[in-house]
Hints:
Elements: H1 2-5, E1 8-17, H2 24-37, E2 40-50, H3 61-74, E3 78-81, H4 87-97, E4 100-103, H5 104-115, H6 119-133, H7 137-145, H8 165-195, E5 200-205, H9 211-220, E6 244-249, E7 255-260, H10 270-275, H11 277-280, E8 288-294, H12 300-313, E9 321-326, E10 345-348, H13 357-367, E11 373-379, H14 384-393, E12 396-401, E13 406-412, H15 414-419
Parallel strand pairs: 1-2, 1-3, 3-4, 5-7, 5-8, 8-9, 9-10
Antiparallel strand pairs: 6-7, 11-13, 12-13
Helix pairs in contact: 2-5, 4-7, 5-6, 6-8
Amino acid sequence: MGQENNRERVLIVGVDLESDLIDIENSLDELEELVKAANGIVISRLIQKKDNINPAYFIGKGKAEEIKNYCEELNISTVVFNDELSGAQLRNLEKIIDKKIVDRTNLILDIFASRAKSKEGKLQVKLAQLKYRLPRLIGFRDYLSREGGGIGTRGPGEQKLETDRRHILREINNIEKQLKEIERVRDIKRKRRRESNLPIVALVGYTNAGKSTLLNKIIELNVEHDEAKEVYVEDMLFATLDTSLRRGKLPNGQAFLLTDTVGFVSKLPTKLIEAFKGTLEEVKYADLLLHVVDASNKDLDIQIQTTFNILKELEVLDKPIITVFNKMDKVNIHSLIYDNRFIGEKVFISAKTGENLDKLLFYIQELLPYSYKFVTLNIPFDKHKVVDYFMQNYEINNMKYTEEGTILELYINPLDLKKYDEFIV
């Protein structure tokens, strides 16, 4: 109970427009999960049906006055809106309601600011926050002068962000330079990975669909499994932000690289997609995508379409994609209803229990664009550089020394098969 007292008391507000494709109650359920992820507690929710958005207040002015009364009655300190607000709307709402006003975009940025661990992740979030706040400086003056931290004030807000536009533009320019250098280093690492000849499989999908749990399960199957290599998992939105890269093994013994990516969410701020473009571009260099879906979620189709739209924006829909319906331990397969338009190859699993994980690995093995062939190589001792090449770039199944040379047993890709065919036994 004491812990609950430390959490910000929040009212969430949504506008129900006829043009909206997403059910407003479902959308507010997701907003509530986002508030929870930001360590807030939703005390109540309010929905207003409207034909169009009020340019001055987003909602009606009368509804804003009603919210002021709600906040006083329920001892609410923060009002979170389900859509992005302009600087004028933020300022006008705060004048009437006299409480902290946070929109959906700022809430997501706030969660990202608290979760980013790597230097790149922190810089990417800070860049998105600065770009979000730049056109809202007037609206943020009162906001940032309020005492205390909490939802919507992490990141640059903690430093009492200067309202000097030129200062912010200089900071944006500085961060972009640092990110370019990080991108250059990532390109070098990426090139080395490509040269390693190991196929790359990327996990994509909605936040909290179980991507990190699945990654951990797959690396558990590795002979050289190391608990220190497991990635952080928690049942909340955006539990992990930073891209993880781990090694897995297919049923035929072939090694592959598995990369996790930042999770998606409906109405994901454009600024965040832009900021995380470098990280998301890992998907472009993958040989195969695993689109992980939470089969137990009632908004299954919306989540599938959200991911599909982002993959389309990243121009990777031409890659082999397996839709992985996860959390099947929570749902009956016969009651599962989904839109087939965005789904080709599919498999139903539970990353938690390990159900059908073997089937998924066989699918990956079958759908990788190029197949590896198992060979035995006999490499003369005077060709030690060839042995070094295979030791550095391949998973060796067996190795022994004879009078004639070094014997290696391994799965080899078609290019190297042709290049080193003279050594095949």
